[in-house]
Amino acid sequence: MLLDRRRFVTLLGVLALMPMPRMAFATPREVAMDTLLIDKPDGGVPNNKLPVLIYHRVIPPDTADNAEYLEHLFRTNGWPPQWRYPVYTFTHFHSNTPEVLGVYAGSAKLQLGGEHGKILEVKIGDVILLPAGIGHKQISADEDFMLVGAYPPQMKADICHDELPQLAARTKAVNAVPLPATDPVTGHTEGSMLAWHKE
């Protein structure tokens, strides 16, 4: 039976008022985030006045390939993935770029801020966004602990060691690093778009 325009519009109005099954809607997935401020130098590690951001449960539970999921997420949000690897077991930092680390396998204890820094336990689904200058190293880890690492576009991270004579020059370099245009987890909203750009 053909519907005239008036009956069609009436039918649409009735359908709009009917309850829809839950599966018809995308289920929002909240990503919890913590901040960690490490703004004082530690030896030759400058650290940063911007907080470290730690996102939890970023990977949905039904994900087939955790690494590919994180790489796609970072790439989509303007942070091209550069490597899959654990964290070096010596204190180091990057004076020219922020870095995002996404845990896709295992768990580990990382030390952030330098040799006297804070210990952070990370596991699958955690993403750590480090501002330039934040010292980091792996203290311990499961055998299968692995990360996806990414930086803002066209960035190749330098690797700086804890060298006190270089502190002044590296602090100056860290302070000159521009804020990224997007957040690797949330894109143009939330995350570093709020926590870093309000500084």
From TrEMBL:
The keyword DNA damage does not apply. InterPro entries: UCP019307_cupin (IPR014500), YjiB-like (IPR047121). Residues 1-26 form the signal peptide. CDD domains: cupin_YjlB-like (cd02219). Keywords: Signal. PANTHER family: BLR7373 PROTEIN (PTHR36448), CUPIN TYPE-1 DOMAIN-CONTAINING PROTEIN (PTHR36448:SF2). This is Cupin.
